[in-house]
Design brief:
By secondary structure, this protein is mainly alpha-helical. Helix content is 78%, strand content 0%. α6 runs antiparallel to α7.
């Protein structure tokens, strides 16, 4: 059974292009339609559960299916199969970037423009879904303004907390009343233990990081905190990690955006962007530390949530808090679209023209993100030829 989980999840990790929505479609085709591991209702409940948690929803759904099929070890194996292919590609790209001076290559700047188009596309999609009314749009705009005026990781966390409290007051009447229960075989004691580990680790890591002067510990602290607090999926990783590492000089804006652009070209979860960042900062050991740290909260949260969330999701107060949090996510991403994305990628009219073309291909013609990377790299080269 475990070998079967590994083979199928690895197949999905090698072929699941297109971001979290596409990943969920691939999962349904493979796990539900073809293999009948779950029924449609249980799968829909798992998706709803993971949408309520911070972290990468598609990875969490994959972990959940692995747990339901093969226990905790099945969840780990499912995660490894789905994640490792893109981790390996991004680590290799980071090593090439460092050792062969790829930072000066023309296609690297094209990757930054690709990142701008992808972030704008994600921002519009999230905005339509998460800010459908004036109140939530107001929360998003306020969050963006505060982030632009006071750019820091801690301000971002405060914005999320404040938005959740505001949502509790404003959106209680918008909560859904009919939510199906989710039946799982994880004990509440195990769930509580997992949550306790998560909370204690969040508290202990900053203390240990200040006590011991270790670059690997610093990487683990940063990425574990990001993995624990990022609502809204992979694209929201961009602003939160950027605020943690670029101002501190751990990476340059150019290195950061080049990796983010490349991350669009690989299958699997966008959170594997952390593998690239860890490699740039501390080589292979940095990649391992960053990757484990950013995904570990997702695993702990799934184990903690599965026994409890069926009941919690029914509560109007919980739903209203998440509405506020999700609206703030849109504002945080809007601020990041200006800094660092636009500031580091669009330097002249040629860059702007290429960005508009790539965005139109994404938004209007629905070209997949991995193909946008190829088109952007080739287009950037052609535009440069004509601009000389």
């Amino acid at each position: 059974m475990l070998l079967e989980i590994l083979l199928i999840s690895t197949k999905l990790g090698l072929t699941s292009f297109g971001g979290p929505v596409a990943h969920l479609a691939y999962f349904k085709e493979e796990y539900i339609d073809r293999r009948k591991w779950l029924n449609d209702k249980t799968y829909a409940d798992l998706i709803a559960l993971c949408q309520f948690l911070p972290g990468p929803a598609s990875s969490q759904v994959g972990i959940s299916i692995g747990i339901l099929r093969g226990g905790l070890l099945g969840g780990i194996i499912s995660f490894l199969g789905f994640t490792l292919p893109s981790v390996m590609v991004l680590v290799i790209f980071a090593l090439l970037y460092q050792n062969f001076s790829l930072g000066d290559a023309g296609f690297i700047h094209s990757l930054k423009i690709v990142a701008a188009a992808v972030v704008l596309h994600a921002l519009i999609g999230l905005g339509k879904k998460l800010t459908p009314d004036k109140s939530r749009m107001g929360i998003a705009l306020a969050g963006a303004m505060i982030m632009l005026l006071y750019p820091s990781a801690w301000i971002q966390i405060l914005i999320i907390v404040a938005a959740g409290l505001l949502g509790l007051k404003l959106f209680r009447d918008k909560a859904e009343s009919k939510i199906e229960p989710l039946n799982v075989n994880i004990s509440k004691k195990m769930g509580a233990t997992s949550l306790l580990i998560l909370v204690n680790t969040l508290i202990a890591l900053p203390i240990l990081n200040k006590t011991f002067n270790s670059s690997l510990l610093n990487i683990f602290d940063v990425f574990f905190r990001v993995g624990s607090l990022v609502f809204g999926g992979g694209h929201v990783v961009l602003p939160m990690i950027e605020r943690e590492i670029v101002p501190q000089g751990l990476l340059s804006p150019d290195e950061f955006l080049a990796g983010y652009g490349m991350a669009q070209a690989v299958p699997g979860p966008l959170f594997t962007f952390s593998s690239y960042l860890g490699t740039i900062m501390e080589g292979i050991t940095g990649a391992v530390a960053a990757t484990v740290a950013i995904f570990l909260p997702s695993f702990l949260l799934i184990v903690a949530a599965l026994p409890f969330l069926s009941e919690l999701r029914k509560r109007a107060s919980f739903q209203s808090i998440l509405m506020g949090v999700n609206a703030s996510v849109v504002g945080i991403l809007l601020a990041a679209f200006y800094d660092p994305v636009i500031k580091s990628s669009i330097h002249d009219g040629t860059d702007f023209a290429l960005g508009v073309i790539l965005f139109a291909l994404l938004n209007v013609w629905k070209v997949p993100a991995w193909l946008i990377v190829i088109i952007g790299s080739v287009g950037g080269y052609i535009f440069n030829l004509f601009s000389v």
